[in-house]
Design brief:
- The protein is α+β, with helices and mostly antiparallel strands.
- It contains 26 helices and 14 strands.
- Helix content is 49%, strand content 10%.
- The strands form four sheets. A five-stranded mixed sheet has the order 12-11-10-13-14, with helices on both faces. Strands 4-5-6-7 form a four-stranded antiparallel sheet, with helices on one face. A three-stranded antiparallel sheet has the order 1-2-3, with no helix packed on it.
């Protein structure tokens, strides 16, 4: 296939681009601009008929030229093709073997006319037995490393692929050697050569070769591995950073990718939203999320609902489980649209559909939600699964009740007004910083409280107490002394911080998604009850705060089913298994409860083993080899046949109740774990010793104590559905949040 030769310039100077007595004609057929002292007569692509791989094939170009009358360069042959003298072969084999020697020892001929292409150091042509100086078959080469024969049709792509696949060390060595050569000296394509113009005594760089030109400008095919790799990287960039899909249409982003790789063509925004991101979603779901959920013995869910800027209603669901290696696993399952009404029936129906889609109904241990009545009843009554109220939400409601106590509302309001003045006035801001430097106080800004976050109130009071002297100096300087707190108000603020400080620490520790938290709810409630106990030294305002907070806390986790679940989880955690907050009678009840469930598990395990044994026996009878001649049975065989209904396992194992009790007693004898120890790590080393209790531990300890994971979906989704992206469809919002969370797992 003939192509017009690309326009190229023999010399950057204008004088060389025109005809001259020594330079030859530079235009038209038979006189095109030259390369390194030659004039191009014709350009031909010999790629016709080559196999097409997933990468765009590089063109194979043959140039027909005639020499310019300057001398010093090889002349073309009868066909007008230039053959350059091959450069010396480099020895860079990982074994330190000279590749030229290998060619000779294996009776192979090196390709004539090769320049600096190192791939030919590993391949040669078989010699003609009758004429050893000639090639036997020019369309077949042989690898000097493994003697494998490959077809050769002017392209070395098959040779490169073979070397990378079967001889990766040699391939890497070749690439490294080529890179060092490029770093140390200019390549032959860019090496400076003498000018062909007689009047020019300067040296100039050679022009880019046609092969290099075609390679660098040919776009990747959409089905090529490189194009797919780059497109997947862009998709991950979008979902990991919660970036809008229209990022792919921004000029700056597209220009940046062109600089990175000019052969890559970025797909359209529509392709990303309708094809590429859904494909990535399906891949992550089927290859990562689903297999791990299927492998898990039990799964606990957290769920909550939210409303987007576009007034669309959603329900979010996350799954939590204990992996085979006894680590906590967590996936986002759904962030699906849930139109009103949000009553018990509709919420229960939506959750039931999610459980069916993910095939989790038979392994669900519990569902964690906030304390809203509709979603709580949907889990308990609509689904019939154990429901756990979010402990973080419970603590939040408890603290809010205490902070709304009448005795401290005036103090909190005055603190808030003081902070507002210091933050909003530019003069007060700089004056406050100056007083901090003068007093050598920490240069910290005052913190404004937020009604919906009780932690901000704690932080505000703590910062005011830290900067009390700086604040007083500021108010004197600005003549706003009326804003200063009285000694009694300072004392109230100090006592409030003392009450809230442990609650703040508890909230942070229970927000962890990688550690066991469900077993700590009841011990923490007992601990808080001790903090809220009134003492004679308490101010009257603080007594009221403690009383109201303790009363609110007692409203939760009193349900019989919920309390049973939490006590079992506490018993299976080696840190709390002695149940120190219970009476002896309550401890005995918990042990009996655990023993009943363990007995059921043992019975189910034995029944499953019998079914498996029966199925194996029937399989051998129906599909076994032809029956041999019947032998006379021995006395022992007759006895075994008579006792066949009583398996060996039944003869040696105690009753399930006794086995369960024995395992529990041995477990209780084990030393109690320290507070900082991980109970799952302990179970990973004791699973074989306590198989039944280990199964129960995976069921209960996988449950998170809070619904924070589901609530975090709203933060991620809210960022995705910002003011500029309110037109995103609910399906795309669900996929983007799913990928954002699960690509990290």
């Amino acid at each position: 296939m003939n192509r017009d030769p690309p326009s190229c310039t023999h010399n950057p100077s204008s004088s060389d681009s025109t005809s001259g007595s020594d330079g030859g004609s530079t235009g038209g057929p038979g006189g095109d601009a030259g390369i390194c002292g030659f004039r191009i007569l014709d350009v031909q692509n010999l790629r016709d008929g080559d196999d097409v791989t997933d990468q765009v094939p590089d063109p194979i170009v043959v140039m027909k030229v005639e020499p310019e009358p300057t001398g010093g360069f090889p002349s073309p042959d009868l066909n007008g093709e230039v053959k350059l003298k091959p450069e010396p072969l480099h020895a860079f084999s990982s074994q330190g073997i000279d590749m030229e020697d290998l060619l000779g020892k294996q009776n192979l001929l090196r390709k004539a006319g090769t320049s600096s292409s190192m791939i030919w150091s590993f391949y040669g042509f078989e010699k003609n037995p009758e004429k050893p100086s000639e090639i036997l078959n020019p369309k077949q080469v042989r690898c000097v490393l493994c003697n494998k024969k490959l077809s050769y049709m002017s392209s070395t792509s098959v040779m490169h692929k073979h070397l990378k696949s079967l001889h990766p060390k040699e391939a890497r060595g070749m690439e490294g050697h080529a890179k060092r050569d490029r770093d140390q000296s200019p390549s032959s394509a860019n090496r400076e050569r003498p000018s062909t113009c007689a009047e020019s005594g300067t040296r100039k760089p050679a022009q880019e070769s046609l092969l290099t030109h075609f390679q660098s400008s040919t776009p990747y095919a959409a089905v090529s591995a490189r194009h797919k790799e780059l497109t997947t990287a862009v998709s991950r960039f979008i979902v990991a950073g919660m970036r809008p899909i229209y990022t792919v249409e921004e000029e700056g982003f597209r220009n940046m990718l062109k600089i990175f790789d000019q052969r890559y063509t970025l797909p359209s925004r529509k392709s990303f939203s309708s094809v590429i991101i859904p494909q990535l979603y399906n891949k992550v779901k089927e290859e990562s999320v689903v297999p791990q959920l299927q492998e898990a013995s039990y799964v606990a869910l957290t769920t909550d609902m939210w409303t987007s800027r576009a007034s669309d209603h959603y329900i979010g669901v996350t799954a939590h489980f204990v992996n085979r290696d006894w680590s906590v696993g967590r996936f986002t399952l759904e962030n699906a649209e849930l139109p009103p009404p949000h009553d018990l029936e509709h919420i229960a129906s939506a959750l039931h559909e999610i459980l069916e889609d993910w095939k989790l109904k038979d392994k669900l241990s519990a569902v964690v939600t906030d304390n809203e009545t509709n979603i709580t009843e949907a889990v308990r009554e609509g689904l019939g699964f154990p429901h756990i109220s979010c402990f973080g939400h419970t603590l939040n409601l408890m603290v809010k009740v205490g902070l709304n106590s009448r005795g401290i509302k005036t103090t909190l309001a005055r603190c808030s007004k003081l902070v507002e003045f210091a933050r909003r006035s530019a003069k007060a801001k700089y004056s406050f910083a100056a007083h901090q430097h003068t007093l050598d106080f920490p240069v910290h800004k005052l913190i404004q409280d937020i009604d919906t976050r009780w932690g901000s109130t704690h932080d505000m009071l703590k910062r005011i107490l830290e900067q009390q002297q700086s604040i007083s100096n500021l108010l004197i300087k600005t003549k706003r002394k009326e804003l200063d707190l009285s000694a009694h108000e300072v004392l109230i603020a100090k006592k409030i911080v003392e009450v809230l400080e442990p609650v703040r620490g508890i909230t942070e520790s229970f927000s962890s998604e990688t550690s066991v938290t469900i077993s700590g709810i009841l011990p923490t409630i007992s601990y808080l009850e001790g903090i809220f106990a009134e003492s004679e030294d308490d101010l009257s305002e603080i007594r009221q705060v403690k009383r109201e907070m303790a009363s609110k806390l007692s409203d939760y986790y009193s349900d019989f089913g919920t309390r049973q679940y939490l006590l079992t989880a506490e018993f299976l955690d080696g840190r709390y298994k002695r149940l120190p907050f219970l009476s002896d009678t309550e401890k005995a009840r918990v042990k009996d409860m655990v023993m009943r469930e363990a007995t059921t598990i043992i019975e189910q395990r034995r029944q499953a083993a019998k079914r498996e044994f029966t199925e194996d026996s029937l399989g051998k009878l129906t599909s076994g080899p032809p029956k041999k001649k019947k032998k006379k049975k021995s006395l022992a065989a007759l006895i075994n046949e008579a006792l066949g209904d009583i398996g060996e396992e039944d003869l040696h194992h105690p009753p399930p109740e006794q086995e369960a009790e024995d395992e529990i007693d041995r477990y209780l004898v084990e030393a109690r774990l320290d507070a900082d120890c991980c109970p799952l790590k302990w179970w990973s080393s004791k699973e074989a010793k306590y198989p039944t209790l280990a199964t129960m531990a995976k069921k209960y300890l996988c449950t998170p104590a809070t619904s924070v994971p589901a609530e975090c979906l709203f933060s991620v989704s809210g960022y995705i559905v910002n003011a500029k992206r309110t037109l995103l469809t609910p399906a795309n919002i669900g996929m983007l949040t799913f990928l954002h969370d699960n690509l990290k797992q």
